[in-house]
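Consortium newsletter contribution from the modelling node. Members have asked for a concrete example of what our holo predictions look like. Here is one, prepared for the 2-oxoglutaric acid complex that several groups have been discussing at recent meetings.
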Amino acid sequence: MHTPLPIIDIAPLYASDVKGWHEVARQIDTACRDWGFFYIRNHPISAERIAQLKGAAEQFFGLPVEQKLQIDITKSTHHRGYGAIATEQLDPAKPSDLKETFDMGFHMPPDHPEVLAGKPLRGPNRHPELEGWPALFEQHYQDMHALACTLLRAVANALGVESGFFDKRFIEPISVFRMIHYPPRQTATAPEQQGAGAHTDYGCITLLYQDQAGGLQVQNVRGEWIDAPPIEGTFVVNIGDMMARWSNDRYKSTPHRVISPLGVDRYSMPFFAEPNPDTIISCLPGCQSRDNPPKYPDTTCSAYMLSRFAETYAYRREASAAVN
Ligand SMILES: O=C(O)CCC(=O)C(=O)O
Ligand SMILES: [Fe+2]
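And here is the predicted structure:
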Protein backbone atom coordinates (compact mmCIF):
# COMPACT_ATOMS: atom_id res chain seq x y z
CA MET A 1 0.00 0.00 0.00
CA HIS A 2 1.61 3.29 -1.06
CA THR A 3 1.69 6.27 1.30
CA PRO A 4 3.98 9.30 1.55
CA LEU A 5 3.79 8.99 5.36
CA PRO A 6 6.97 7.54 6.90
CA ILE A 7 6.90 3.86 7.92
CA ILE A 8 9.37 3.20 10.74
CA ASP A 9 10.62 -0.23 11.81
CA ILE A 10 10.88 0.14 15.60
CA ALA A 11 12.49 -3.28 16.33
CA PRO A 12 15.84 -1.54 17.18
CA LEU A 13 14.10 0.23 20.10
CA TYR A 14 13.88 -3.21 21.73
CA ALA A 15 17.43 -4.38 20.89
CA SER A 16 20.72 -3.73 22.67
CA ASP A 17 22.49 -2.00 19.75
CA VAL A 18 22.75 1.66 20.83
CA LYS A 19 23.48 2.89 17.30
CA GLY A 20 20.31 1.25 15.96
CA TRP A 21 18.26 2.78 18.79
CA HIS A 22 19.55 6.28 17.98
CA GLU A 23 18.86 5.79 14.28
CA VAL A 24 15.18 5.03 15.03
CA ALA A 25 15.00 8.03 17.40
CA ARG A 26 16.31 10.16 14.53
CA GLN A 27 13.68 8.77 12.11
CA ILE A 28 10.92 9.46 14.64
CA ASP A 29 12.20 13.01 15.13
CA THR A 30 12.14 13.68 11.37
CA ALA A 31 8.65 12.17 11.00
CA CYS A 32 7.31 14.27 13.90
CA ARG A 33 8.74 17.46 12.40
CA ASP A 34 7.70 16.81 8.80
CA TRP A 35 4.32 15.17 9.27
CA GLY A 36 3.35 14.70 12.91
CA PHE A 37 2.19 11.30 11.56
CA PHE A 38 3.97 8.02 10.85
CA TYR A 39 3.44 4.26 10.85
CA ILE A 40 5.32 1.86 13.11
CA ARG A 41 6.00 -1.75 12.20
CA ASN A 42 7.58 -4.57 14.22
CA HIS A 43 5.89 -3.42 17.43
CA PRO A 44 5.26 -5.97 20.21
CA ILE A 45 1.41 -6.10 20.04
CA SER A 46 0.52 -9.50 18.57
CA ALA A 47 -1.86 -10.14 15.66
CA GLU A 48 -3.70 -12.52 17.98
CA ARG A 49 -4.35 -9.69 20.49
CA ILE A 50 -5.66 -7.46 17.71
CA ALA A 51 -7.98 -10.25 16.51
CA GLN A 52 -9.32 -10.73 20.07
CA LEU A 53 -9.99 -7.00 20.43
CA LYS A 54 -11.66 -6.79 17.03
CA GLY A 55 -13.91 -9.73 17.98
CA ALA A 56 -14.76 -8.00 21.26
CA ALA A 57 -15.53 -4.75 19.42
CA GLU A 58 -17.92 -6.48 17.01
CA GLN A 59 -19.62 -8.26 19.90
CA PHE A 60 -20.02 -5.13 22.04
CA PHE A 61 -21.13 -2.71 19.32
CA GLY A 62 -23.55 -5.38 18.06
CA LEU A 63 -25.47 -5.32 21.37
CA PRO A 64 -28.82 -3.50 21.60
CA VAL A 65 -28.26 0.18 22.32
CA GLU A 66 -30.09 0.01 25.69
CA GLN A 67 -27.57 -2.56 26.85
CA LYS A 68 -24.61 -0.45 25.70
CA LEU A 69 -26.11 2.57 27.43
CA GLN A 70 -25.83 0.76 30.78
CA ILE A 71 -22.31 2.20 30.75
CA ASP A 72 -23.25 5.53 29.12
CA ILE A 73 -20.19 7.84 29.07
CA THR A 74 -22.38 10.92 29.43
CA LYS A 75 -23.44 9.58 32.87
CA SER A 76 -19.85 8.96 33.95
CA THR A 77 -18.16 11.50 36.21
CA HIS A 78 -14.74 10.51 34.87
CA HIS A 79 -15.30 9.90 31.15
CA ARG A 80 -15.46 6.11 30.89
CA GLY A 81 -17.82 3.82 29.01
CA TYR A 82 -20.00 3.89 25.91
CA GLY A 83 -20.51 6.94 23.69
CA ALA A 84 -23.51 6.52 21.38
CA ILE A 85 -23.62 7.78 17.78
CA ALA A 86 -23.34 11.59 17.61
CA THR A 87 -22.19 12.03 21.23
CA GLU A 88 -18.99 13.70 20.03
CA GLN A 89 -18.54 16.59 17.61
CA LEU A 90 -14.87 16.86 16.62
CA ASP A 91 -15.38 19.48 13.90
CA PRO A 92 -17.58 22.32 15.22
CA ALA A 93 -18.43 23.30 11.62
CA LYS A 94 -19.96 19.87 10.92
CA PRO A 95 -22.77 17.79 12.46
CA SER A 96 -21.83 15.42 15.31
CA ASP A 97 -19.69 12.41 14.41
CA LEU A 98 -21.18 9.27 12.88
CA LYS A 99 -19.46 6.81 15.22
CA GLU A 100 -19.91 5.01 18.53
CA THR A 101 -17.16 4.51 21.08
CA PHE A 102 -15.99 2.68 24.19
CA ASP A 103 -13.46 4.50 26.41
CA MET A 104 -11.35 3.14 29.24
CA GLY A 105 -8.48 4.64 31.19
CA PHE A 106 -6.14 4.13 34.12
CA HIS A 107 -8.20 2.14 36.61
CA MET A 108 -8.49 3.54 40.11
CA PRO A 109 -10.82 1.80 42.60
CA PRO A 110 -13.65 3.85 44.18
CA ASP A 111 -11.82 3.97 47.54
CA HIS A 112 -8.60 5.39 46.07
CA PRO A 113 -7.80 8.75 47.77
CA GLU A 114 -7.81 10.62 44.45
CA VAL A 115 -11.23 9.19 43.56
CA LEU A 116 -12.61 9.95 47.04
CA ALA A 117 -11.28 13.50 46.66
CA GLY A 118 -13.21 13.84 43.37
CA LYS A 119 -10.12 14.43 41.24
CA PRO A 120 -11.20 14.96 37.61
CA LEU A 121 -10.89 12.00 35.20
CA ARG A 122 -10.02 9.57 38.02
CA GLY A 123 -12.07 6.47 38.85
CA PRO A 124 -12.77 2.85 38.01
CA ASN A 125 -13.16 1.56 34.48
CA ARG A 126 -16.68 0.65 33.41
CA HIS A 127 -16.49 -2.55 31.39
CA PRO A 128 -19.43 -4.25 29.69
CA GLU A 129 -20.56 -7.52 31.24
CA LEU A 130 -19.02 -9.72 28.56
CA GLU A 131 -16.96 -12.79 29.35
CA GLY A 132 -13.21 -12.23 29.53
CA TRP A 133 -13.57 -8.53 28.73
CA PRO A 134 -11.95 -6.80 31.76
CA ALA A 135 -8.85 -9.06 31.72
CA LEU A 136 -8.30 -8.59 27.96
CA PHE A 137 -8.77 -4.83 28.02
CA GLU A 138 -6.80 -4.10 31.22
CA GLN A 139 -3.88 -6.13 29.83
CA HIS A 140 -4.07 -4.33 26.50
CA TYR A 141 -4.13 -0.94 28.22
CA GLN A 142 -0.89 -1.84 30.05
CA ASP A 143 0.76 -3.09 26.86
CA MET A 144 -0.17 0.05 24.91
CA HIS A 145 1.12 2.16 27.80
CA ALA A 146 4.47 0.32 27.64
CA LEU A 147 4.67 0.79 23.85
CA ALA A 148 3.90 4.51 24.19
CA CYS A 149 6.64 4.87 26.83
CA THR A 150 9.13 3.11 24.54
CA LEU A 151 8.37 5.60 21.74
CA LEU A 152 8.45 8.54 24.17
CA ARG A 153 11.96 7.60 25.30
CA ALA A 154 13.11 8.09 21.69
CA VAL A 155 11.14 11.35 21.49
CA ALA A 156 12.75 12.59 24.73
CA ASN A 157 16.18 11.89 23.32
CA ALA A 158 15.35 13.76 20.11
CA LEU A 159 13.96 16.74 22.05
CA GLY A 160 17.12 17.03 24.16
CA VAL A 161 15.76 15.97 27.57
CA GLU A 162 16.86 12.90 29.58
CA SER A 163 15.41 9.73 28.09
CA GLY A 164 13.33 9.04 31.25
CA PHE A 165 11.66 12.47 31.09
CA PHE A 166 8.28 11.10 29.98
CA ASP A 167 8.45 7.85 32.02
CA LYS A 168 8.38 9.95 35.20
CA ARG A 169 5.37 11.83 33.92
CA PHE A 170 3.45 8.67 32.95
CA ILE A 171 3.36 6.84 36.32
CA GLU A 172 -0.43 7.15 36.80
CA PRO A 173 -1.38 8.66 33.44
CA ILE A 174 -4.78 9.69 32.18
CA SER A 175 -4.18 7.90 28.86
CA VAL A 176 -7.31 6.59 27.17
CA PHE A 177 -7.80 3.40 25.17
CA ARG A 178 -10.77 3.73 22.87
CA MET A 179 -12.62 1.40 20.51
CA ILE A 180 -14.55 3.02 17.71
CA HIS A 181 -17.22 1.64 15.39
CA TYR A 182 -18.07 3.62 12.27
CA PRO A 183 -21.33 2.43 10.70
CA PRO A 184 -21.20 2.28 6.90
CA ARG A 185 -21.89 5.34 4.77
CA GLN A 186 -24.83 4.65 2.49
CA THR A 187 -24.30 7.09 -0.39
CA ALA A 188 -21.36 8.00 -2.62
CA THR A 189 -22.08 11.72 -2.12
CA ALA A 190 -19.66 13.19 0.42
CA PRO A 191 -21.58 13.17 3.69
CA GLU A 192 -22.09 16.31 5.73
CA GLN A 193 -21.82 14.10 8.78
CA GLN A 194 -18.35 12.55 8.85
CA GLY A 195 -17.17 9.49 10.76
CA ALA A 196 -14.80 11.75 12.68
CA GLY A 197 -14.72 15.44 11.84
CA ALA A 198 -11.40 17.18 11.18
CA HIS A 199 -9.50 17.67 14.43
CA THR A 200 -6.15 17.50 16.14
CA ASP A 201 -5.65 15.12 19.09
CA TYR A 202 -5.42 16.65 22.56
CA GLY A 203 -2.73 14.51 24.15
CA CYS A 204 0.91 13.65 23.76
CA ILE A 205 0.97 10.89 21.15
CA THR A 206 -1.74 8.66 19.73
CA LEU A 207 -1.17 5.04 18.65
CA LEU A 208 -3.94 3.88 16.36
CA TYR A 209 -4.91 0.45 15.12
CA GLN A 210 -7.23 0.66 12.12
CA ASP A 211 -8.87 -2.29 10.37
CA GLN A 212 -8.75 -2.83 6.61
CA ALA A 213 -11.79 -0.65 5.74
CA GLY A 214 -9.87 2.63 5.17
CA GLY A 215 -11.14 6.19 5.55
CA LEU A 216 -8.50 7.91 7.71
CA GLN A 217 -7.16 11.10 6.13
CA VAL A 218 -4.36 13.44 7.18
CA GLN A 219 -3.84 17.07 6.15
CA ASN A 220 -0.50 17.80 4.50
CA VAL A 221 1.38 21.12 4.75
CA ARG A 222 -0.46 22.43 1.67
CA GLY A 223 -3.80 21.84 3.39
CA GLU A 224 -4.73 18.89 1.14
CA TRP A 225 -6.31 15.74 2.58
CA ILE A 226 -4.31 12.60 1.86
CA ASP A 227 -5.23 9.02 2.72
CA ALA A 228 -3.52 7.22 5.60
CA PRO A 229 -4.39 3.72 4.32
CA PRO A 230 -4.48 0.62 6.50
CA ILE A 231 -1.19 -1.30 6.46
CA GLU A 232 -1.35 -4.76 7.99
CA GLY A 233 0.66 -5.19 11.20
CA THR A 234 1.24 -1.46 11.78
CA PHE A 235 -0.01 1.25 14.09
CA VAL A 236 -0.44 4.83 12.92
CA VAL A 237 1.24 7.18 15.40
CA ASN A 238 0.51 10.88 15.58
CA ILE A 239 1.51 13.86 17.67
CA GLY A 240 -1.16 15.55 19.80
CA ASP A 241 -1.50 19.13 20.98
CA MET A 242 0.21 18.63 24.35
CA MET A 243 3.37 17.44 22.61
CA ALA A 244 3.14 20.35 20.16
CA ARG A 245 3.04 22.66 23.20
CA TRP A 246 5.89 20.85 24.96
CA SER A 247 8.03 21.07 21.81
CA ASN A 248 6.96 24.63 20.91
CA ASP A 249 5.52 23.32 17.61
CA ARG A 250 8.77 21.66 16.57
CA TYR A 251 6.50 18.60 16.42
CA LYS A 252 3.31 19.04 14.46
CA SER A 253 -0.12 18.18 15.78
CA THR A 254 -1.63 17.46 12.39
CA PRO A 255 -5.36 17.69 11.54
CA HIS A 256 -6.95 14.41 10.51
CA ARG A 257 -10.45 13.02 9.94
CA VAL A 258 -12.33 9.86 9.05
CA ILE A 259 -14.60 9.56 6.04
CA SER A 260 -16.66 6.46 6.75
CA PRO A 261 -16.27 3.93 3.95
CA LEU A 262 -19.19 3.12 1.69
CA GLY A 263 -21.25 0.09 2.67
CA VAL A 264 -18.80 -1.43 5.18
CA ASP A 265 -18.38 -1.11 8.93
CA ARG A 266 -15.08 0.28 10.13
CA TYR A 267 -13.39 -0.41 13.47
CA SER A 268 -10.44 1.45 14.91
CA MET A 269 -8.71 1.54 18.29
CA PRO A 270 -6.67 4.56 19.28
CA PHE A 271 -4.58 4.73 22.44
CA PHE A 272 -4.22 8.35 23.49
CA ALA A 273 -1.09 8.72 25.65
CA GLU A 274 -1.68 11.50 28.19
CA PRO A 275 0.52 12.05 31.26
CA ASN A 276 -0.20 12.19 34.99
CA PRO A 277 -2.96 14.79 35.48
CA ASP A 278 -0.85 17.31 37.44
CA THR A 279 1.98 17.32 34.88
CA ILE A 280 2.93 20.84 33.86
CA ILE A 281 3.04 21.20 30.10
CA SER A 282 5.70 23.83 29.61
CA CYS A 283 7.95 24.53 26.61
CA LEU A 284 11.08 22.32 26.88
CA PRO A 285 14.42 24.14 27.30
CA GLY A 286 15.84 22.79 24.02
CA CYS A 287 12.79 23.95 22.05
CA GLN A 288 13.07 27.67 22.80
CA SER A 289 15.56 30.47 22.18
CA ARG A 290 15.64 34.25 22.06
CA ASP A 291 14.39 34.11 18.46
CA ASN A 292 11.91 31.35 19.20
CA PRO A 293 10.24 32.13 22.54
CA PRO A 294 7.52 29.80 23.96
CA LYS A 295 4.34 30.11 21.89
CA TYR A 296 1.95 28.72 24.52
CA PRO A 297 1.37 29.54 28.19
CA ASP A 298 2.03 26.74 30.69
CA THR A 299 -0.91 24.53 31.57
CA THR A 300 -1.49 21.23 33.36
CA CYS A 301 -2.44 18.03 31.64
CA SER A 302 -5.85 17.73 33.32
CA ALA A 303 -6.81 21.42 32.90
CA TYR A 304 -5.97 21.16 29.23
CA MET A 305 -7.86 17.89 28.70
CA LEU A 306 -10.97 19.18 30.46
CA SER A 307 -11.00 22.34 28.35
CA ARG A 308 -10.76 20.26 25.16
CA PHE A 309 -13.48 17.82 26.25
CA ALA A 310 -15.79 20.78 26.86
CA GLU A 311 -15.28 21.79 23.23
CA THR A 312 -16.19 18.44 21.71
CA TYR A 313 -18.87 17.06 24.06
CA ALA A 314 -22.12 18.95 24.58
CA TYR A 315 -22.78 17.08 27.85
CA ARG A 316 -19.41 18.25 29.19
CA ARG A 317 -20.24 21.91 28.37
CA GLU A 318 -23.51 21.51 30.25
CA ALA A 319 -21.65 19.95 33.20
CA SER A 320 -19.18 22.85 33.43
CA ALA A 321 -21.96 25.43 33.01
CA ALA A 322 -23.80 23.82 35.95
CA VAL A 323 -20.68 24.08 38.14
CA ASN A 324 -19.84 27.68 37.20
O1 LIG B 1 -10.61 6.11 13.70
C1 LIG B 1 -9.60 6.63 13.26
O2 LIG B 1 -8.95 6.14 12.34
C2 LIG B 1 -9.11 7.94 13.82
C3 LIG B 1 -9.83 8.37 15.05
C4 LIG B 1 -9.33 9.64 15.60
O3 LIG B 1 -8.68 10.42 14.95
C5 LIG B 1 -9.60 9.99 17.02
O4 LIG B 1 -10.41 9.30 17.65
O5 LIG B 1 -8.98 10.94 17.52
FE1 LIG C 1 -7.72 11.84 16.23
